[in-house]
Amino acid sequence: MALRLLHFDACPYCEKVRLSLRRMGLDYESTVIDPEDRSAVERISGQRLVPVLIDDDRVIPDSSRILRYLVARYGERGLLPAGTAEQALSWIVEDYADEVLGPLLHSLLRDRTPEGEPLAPRDRKELEKQLEAQYRNLEQLFAGRTCVFGAEPGLADVAVFAFLSRLARQDSREISAGFPHLRAWYARMEALAAR
Ligand SMILES: N[C@@H](CCC(=O)N[C@@H](CS)C(=O)NCC(=O)O)C(=O)O
Predict the structure, then answer these.
(1) Of 38, 75, 85, 160, which is most buried by a Cβ count within 10 Å?
(2) Most informative mutation of 6, 38, 45, 50 for ligand 1 (most atoms within 8 A of CB)
(3) Which atom of ligand 1 is nearest to the CA of 49?
(4) What is the rounded distance in angstroms from the CA atom of residue 187 to the CA atom of residue 184?
(5) Which domains can be identified in the chain, with CATH numbers?
(6) Distance of alpha carbon 82 from alpha carbon 157, whole angstroms
(7) pLDDT band at 1 (very low <50, low <70, confident <90, very high)
(8) Do residues 101 and 167 lie in contact, with contact meaning Cβ atoms separated by under 8 Å?
(9) Is 12 exposed, middle or buried (CB count within 10 Å of its CB: 0-12, 13-18, 19+)?
(10) Residues 142-168: pLDDT tens digits?
């Protein structure tokens, strides 16, 4: 087995894959990409987005495809919960993180609409309200659970954390004290990320 990951630090999709690889106990060779120079990514994978996983002669772009490949090739290794319904829900949460949290946080961090236009103050306020609603949902979830499923972090936790942690890292924004259970879960996830 010779896994290699093309990635860069500030990319949440890459963080999702890095943390999943760690959770699965899979070692990999790291190739850090300059976000301004995609030539190596394009040469290797035929497209410009990271992350890209290379496993011997296989080249796999797209974080969700990479994770499905890893599970199919190497087994679940703690990334997925036991039941099939919970496994399906884990993938659904992973998709939610990519499709809801990702664009929302991207707009807030760049202060731009998804089309690249500067955010008007009213639009920014609306996005902040949407983020607050996500926090409220997650607070309720973690008020009743240690992790999304079971006692140990899995795919669903990793996916949500990969995006929320961008706000802390790129904007020094902390989750408010009004969401104590979400904060406690976040601290547990930070410990996994620091391992
Ligand atoms: N759907 C892709 C999205 C990956 C993605 O958007 N990566 C960003 C970095 S976080 C990127 O490479 N952007 C470069 C660009 O848009 O040109 C995935 O899940 O891997």
Answers:
(1) 160
(2) 50
(3) 12
(4) 5
(5) 3-74 (3.40.30.10), 84-194 (1.20.1050.10)
(6) 15
(7) low
(8) no
(9) buried
(10) 999 999 999 999 999 999 999 999 988
